[in-house]
Each structure stands twice: as structure tokens, then as C-alpha cells.
């Protein structure tokens, strides 16, 4: 049986901007205690990349091993470098598994020749997936957007705890995505005085898609 809690906070800011407020501190503290229970990795999702970045940095400051995972289509990162998946991949031990060694070797080859052959490119893709799996397996906390939780590298894992930040800004369809990962305990954190989900299509608004799962 899954248990879920809704933490509703308010602030003087009603513009929809993400604040590093007491809400974020509380969310980071909750994640810290979730991770300390040793029941496996904690999944932290947010309605936006900016909210995910802010919370990931707060969690990292508690000393918990945190990986900030972006969607494969996302190219811009404003978070501190040590938290990104790329940074964790670069920090993998050189004497790791054969897949990690192959990943490093192929990266070096690509840097040297500029472009890999189709065969080696496929090998690099497979080796990277193995390396990513190794990083995510070691992480105590994985932070991503709600929609990014649908990617196989996240959805294939089981998370005992889930925390969704800025839940009042998340659409219902995207907010339920992280719940498919075997979650047993969930906390939704939101601010009812901030802007809700933004849906520009009138047909979707009329169909009720402009509603938040939290508020």
C-alpha cells in the first residue's frame, strides 16, 4: 500500500518563479531522511528543470550522493557541475567493469579521430548505457523532471520514496509518471499561491488538463 502526503506552503511571490525558500529547505531535509533509511534510491521530481536544479543543489549540500538527470533532449544545464550525470560518468573509476573501461576507451578514440565508425558508435552507445546504469545504481538520490521519469533509465528502476517539488505547477498527466516506479511513499510539495500549470490550448483547458494533481 502506498502512502502519500501533500505539503502545501505559501510565499509572498505569486509570479510562479521558483524561490530558495523554507519550502525547498524542508523538501531537501525530507529527502535526506528518506535516503538515510537505506531502502534504496530516492526519486525526486519537479515540474521544471529550474526547480529540479535548485532542489538538487540543496540536497547535495546535505551530503547525500545526488545525480541530476536531464532528459536526453535537454542540452542546457545551469546546475553546479559535480551533480550532473556527465560529471558522475567522468568520475567513474578507471579500473571499473569491462563496460566502463570500454566506454572510456571509446570516448578517448572519438576525441582522437573526431568521429567513430558506425560499429564503434553503437558500441559507445551501449557502453554509455551501462555506465549510466552504474552511476544511477550508486546514487542515493536521482533528481529529474516528472516527464523525464518516463525514460527507461529511470522507469526501469524501483524507488521506494518519491518527492515531487512544485507539484502545484505540474499537470496531472505528467505528475503521475513518477508513480509508476514502484513508489511506496510519496510527498508532494507545492505552493497554492503560485501560478498553476500553464496550458495554452483552449481545448485542453476545457477538457480539464490545466489541473494540478496537488491542488
UniProtKB/TrEMBL annotation:
Q: What is the lineage of its organism?
A: Eukaryota, Haptista, Haptophyta, Prymnesiophyceae, Prymnesiales
Question: Which keywords annotate this record?
Answer: Signal
Q: Name one GO molecular function term.
A: RNA helicase activity
> What is one Gene Ontology biological process annotated in the Swiss-Prot or TrEMBL record?
nuclear-transcribed mRNA catabolic process, nonsense-mediated decay
Q: Where is the DNA2/NAM7 helicase helicase domain?
A: 21-96, 104-201
Query: Lyase as a keyword?
Result: no
Question: Which residue positions does the secretion signal occupy?
Answer: 1-16
**Record-given protein name:** DNA2/NAM7 helicase helicase domain-containing protein
| InterPro entries cross-referenced by the UniProt entry | DNA2/NAM7-like, DNA2/NAM7_AAA_11, P-loop_NTPase
Domain of life per record: Eukaryota
Q: Does the keyword Ribonucleoprotein apply?
A: no
GO CC field: cytoplasm
